[in-house]
Every structure is written in structure tokens, then in C-alpha cells.
Description:
Layout: H1 2-7, H2 16-28, H3 34-46, H4 62-115, H5 127-143, H6 150-238
Helix pairs in contact: 3-4, 4-6, 5-6
Amino acid sequence: MVRELDTNVTSSGLTFEEEELFENRYNAELAYNRVQLCINEIEKFQRYNVPDCPEEWKPQRLDKKIKWWKQKLIKAKEQDKKNANRRHRENEASKENVKTAKKLKVAQPILEKHSRIGKGPRMHELILDEQIDLFDQGLTERNEGVQQPSGKVLIRFKKHLKEKKEELNDLSNKFKELKSLVYQYKDNKEKEIEVLMDNQTSIKHEIDKNKEVYEKIIDDAADKIENFIQKANLDNQIQ
């Protein structure tokens, strides 16, 4: 008899039935509720640990049960910490995407202006085009014997050419920055999508696991009820 009892005890000191029951109860609870579940179970068993509690009221393997739930409490707290860190990373990624989107909104007019360069018929909206036409006009007047303003035109042309070169360099730098922001925004979005997909897979896995646990609990309960009815019918027949 003693040997049979020894084989029915797990490494935790509980029987296989007790450990399976506790494990099912733990796994059936959602992750964010497991810490509270462990605390409730520990407090429930610790009520029997008071000095004035009669020994016959105390559950068997009381210390082992409290120890088992304390170990699960440590595991649940560690998982809560991991989940909190993951949510923090998701929030930071979302904030970074908002900042990047604002920068893209500010840079959008520059991008549109850059996209229109070199398109459409030549207009005199740009000073550089105006100076080119003025330079051509000066050469024409020179051929007609009029005092040509080529010297002044050339000075103004060089000055505005230098300004346009600096403007183009500045525009090029802003375009590079904008391009970098676009890639950064794309990378952040891809990371955020990956995190959401991982969360969705994790939640689905947890729901499927809980479903299996509940189905097993229901099947076990049905089997026990059926065995109890069969045993009761057999006892009635014997009597």
C-alpha cells in the first residue's frame, strides 16, 4: 500500500491528480489573471496553517500545495513583466511612427516642389530663367549697336547661379533627410506589424490551449459522473 502511494506522487510532492488539477486551473486562466489566481490559492491554503486549526481539517500535503502555488506565482509575475516590457516597446514604436509621420507632413511641400523641377514650359517665375533671357537680350542689343549690359548681366547671372546652387544643395540635403525618414517610417511600420502578428498568434495559441483544457475538464467531469452513476446502479442491484 505504501509503495502504491509513493508511485502516485510527483517530484513536487503532490499526487498526479492534484498536480494535473492545479496545472489545468492555472493554464485555463488568462495570463493577466494568473498572478491573482496564485495569490488567492495561496491565501486559501494558508488559512489552514493557523495554530488553532484542527489537524483533521487540514488538506493533505498542505505545505506542498502552498509551495507549488508560490512557484507558479513567481512564474506568473515574470510573465507579467515580459508582457509589460513588450507593451512598452509597442507604445514606443507607435510614438516614433507618429513623430516620423509629422516630419513627413512638414517635408511634403518640399518633396512636391522638388517633383515639379524641370517640368512644363519655361516661365519667368525663377530668377535664373529671367537672367538667362536678360543675357540673351543683351547680346541681341549688342548686335544692333546698342550699349550692351553683358557685364552687369554676367555679374548678376553668377550671383544668382551661386544662390541657386546653394538652394539646390539645401534642397538635396532635405530630400536625403526625407528619404531617410521614409525608410525609417517603413521599417517602424514593419516592426509594428510583426509585433501585432506575434501578439495575434500568441493570443490564438492561448485561446486554443484554454479550449483544450476546458474540453478536457468537461470530458473528465462527464466520465466521473458516468462512473458514479454506473457504480450507484450496481450498488442498487446488489442491495
